[in-house]
Amino acid sequence: MRSDLTRVLKEGLIGGLVAYLAAVVALSAFHAIQGESIFQSAAAMGTVLFYGADASANFAITAQSVLAYNGVHLVGSIVVGFLAAFLVFETEAHHAFWYFALTAVIAAVVYSITVFGVFGVEIGGVLDWSTVVIGTAAWTLSMVAYFWWVHRGLMREIQTDLEQDVG
Question: Rounded CA gap, 9 and 4, in Å?
Fold first, then answer.
């Protein structure tokens, strides 16, 4: 029991860090290609987070806004990593749980795009939708890829179970 919890926490921490770093790298590259500061998204979201609807009037790239947002983003990524690791663990124990896990991932993606879009684009006016979609896609795909790689036999096990149920 203790080793299961340790495994879930370890995988969740790594999954969260992988997703966090993927989003940071993808958005930094995206902004660099556009000739903007690599800190553009973090500063924008930090400004929205701490200044609210007046963000576009107060927007500036400052160490405070970049560090504050990165702290929130890192903690959020690790928390979601823990939840994802738990879902994978439960899916390993109960293969029929895969459908719920897939639904949760899809809901998380839709929720992330909506939240970042509403706060960063619509309310704050400091991001554009392409930034939101690129960051969310990098974050989600990297976490899914990490768990897929760590549990690469799980899909075969689920497929075998489904074939046995049908046959």
Answer: 9
Dig out the tokens for 92 from the structure. Answer: 């390993």
Question: Is residue 56 a contact partner of residue 63, using CB atoms and an 8 Å limit?
Answer: no
Torsion sign over Cα 151, 13, 144, 86 = positive
What secondary structure does DSSP assign to 95-110, as a single string?
GGGHHHHHHHHHHHHH
CA–CA separation, 109 vs 122, rounded Å?
Answer: 18
Q: What does the pLDDT look like over 42-88, one tens digit per residue? A: 998 888 888 775 666 667 889 998 999 999 999 999 999 999 999 99
72 within 8 A of 11, measured Cβ to Cβ: no
Query: 106: buried, middle or exposed (CB in 10 Å: 19+, 13-18, 0-12)?
Result: exposed
Rounded Cα gap, residues 55 and 49, in angstroms:
8
- As a whole number of angstroms, the distance between CA 133 and CA 113 comes to 7
